[in-house]
Amino acid sequence: MARTAELADIDALFRTGEPALVVLLGPGGVGKTALAVRWADNVRDRFPDGQLYVDLGGFGGDDPVDPSEALGELLRALGTAPQRVPVTLAEQVALYRSVTADRTLLVLLDNAYSTAQVRALLPAGRSGVLVTSRVRLVGLVADGARLVNLAPLCPAESVLLLSRATGAGRIDREPAEAAQIADICAGLPIALCVAAARLAARPRLSVRRMALDLASETHRLGRLSRTDGLSVQATFDISYRSLHPDVARFYRRLALHPGPEFGAAVTAALLPAGAGNTGDPPGETDSDDPGTLADVMLDALLEASLLEEVTEGHFRFHDLVRLHARQKLERDEPEPERQVVLRGILEWYLAAAREADLVVTPYRRRLPYGYLTPPWNLPRFADRQEALTWLERERVNLIGAGRTALRHGHPALAWQLSDVTWPLLLYRKHYRDRLEIDQRGVEAARSWGEPWAEADMLKRLGRVCTKLGDHEAAERHIRAAILRYREAGDVRGGLDAEEGLAALYRDSGREDRAVEIFFRLVDANREQGDARSTGLSLISLGMLLTALGQPERATGLLREAEVVFAGLADVDPYNGARVLIGLAGALLGKGDLAGAERAATEAARRMRELGSEHEYAEALDQLGQVARRRGETVAARAYHLQALEIFIRLGSSRALGLRRQLDEPVGDLGRDGPPDLVGPAVDPGGEPDAGGVGQLAPG
């Protein structure tokens, strides 16, 4: 193993000119002892009076070594006659510090269990101390300790370890399979060493066969164990047995989480009723607040190096630790209890995402949901941007929660988890994720037997298929949605689905049919008294007429829409900004360059503030068109390149057309570049969002 950066870090801490106390922290099997011994071997000449090593036995299965016993061992190693070693701990400490006062030693304290255990063994004088531990010995900071967290090996170092143990030629012949083993072991040296030992013991075993053997999560921990004591399973078991019973239960239940990372808030769903009121608490708190208790549990797992904090308030398991937690869960928790806890986690995600949904898209129609247990410790959002940031952060977990809900026979919950992602999909696109989410939503609705829910997901699925260019599938889904809405007796939903059909016709070369439907929808929405849906139809119709070379007619319709959404600014600012993008295009078509620039500039500002990057790029594209018409070549290209970069990053089909446009010659050079209108774009954006206001009752 290279570990050159870590060796350099330790070296730097010991070169401060003062006696150093360094604590290497990390989970069992990450290579703390090996690194400490290697560093000590490299620097023997810097400690002329020698090096002392004590295994404090903190995690060996037996009781940790008593400080008095360790001091006796150290004193004898320093030349104290056995009969002169004092009996009491205080006398031993005094003699130890007297003996070491004039020496320059390195004391290596391996597998330390507690601050008190280490503190008694700190020498005097110029000596240095290097400690290894699975627990965060933060109390030693008061003694001047510097804490160094040791991470798993990177992929290249992992493959290098395998190569050195089995022979470079063998690994070089199957590099992809070796990389797969390194990935499965997730950089944990003990796991890599077991895998390498198995390969070394069986010269005819291919690396590919080994990788296949380890691919099964069910048997992975067993196959990463050996009879000679080198065992991933045993390493984790030792840490697990040291946990308070409440923390051990919390650890097991974390294996139910549907995603690779999790925030602190959701972990409150793992706590049983009355948590913290039985037995001694695993931390100092007199609070029964679920969030506080969950924080105590998380701290205990961090202390035991069984959990990693990836960013503030967000955590993850090492892959192999997660498998260990799942194994303990299946062994120690009855299936009915597991299912109750799992549903609590999934319902927490639904409730939290709904809080964000209500902030970002308050106008949406929703089906009610009956929670098994009312979720607690939910986030609160000050504004749309904060809510969208949370949805983006939890995107993978929300997708995983939906999959898990459907797999475990909760179709209503699975549908709700698909439905509640809409604000994220509207503003941030994620078309490929959306395809999966909407397909699962349709499947869940059918299992649930709720026609309106099926219709709504079919409508969404048709729209995303339109965006992805699968027009045949899009028409099939949208027509099915129209039929289901009729069966459910939902006129409003049927009109929304027809809006999707018109958009499909527009994008698939059937513009005349699209215009006809959009005009009909404007009238129908007015008859329904639905101002917002009327405004949406006006936007779609106005943009289409602009594309068909009728900017005068389009401008009038878009001005109407502008008035509609001016009255809905607090409810739907997104479509209020979309009106301006459409209006900029219509004014550009009329030759009103100043008006087009004003509209596009304001649209860009609003979309940037809303975090809707796709529409921000649309506005930049409009500004580029204005600059082209003015002959300002450099400015036009700058706008278009900025828009193109966003479209490419989002996987938008707009990228291809804009790239072609950039290859066309344009007029004479103008100004040097675009003004700094709104700053850099931050987040992806959305699309037309149809739907009436209010909450539905299940039909």
TrEMBL record:
Disordered: annotated segments: 273-292, 665-699
Point to the regions of Gly residues compositional bias: 688-699
Q: Which InterPro entries match?
A: P-loop_NTPase, TPR-like_helical_dom_sf, TPR_rpt
Q: Name one GO molecular function term.
A: ADP binding
One of its Pfam families is TPR_12
Q: Which PANTHER family match?
A: HTH-TYPE TRANSCRIPTIONAL REGULATOR RV0890C-RELATED, REGULATOR-RELATED
Kindly provide the name given to this protein in its UniProt entry. Answer: Tetratricopeptide (TPR) repeat protein
To which species is this protein native?
Plantactinospora soyae
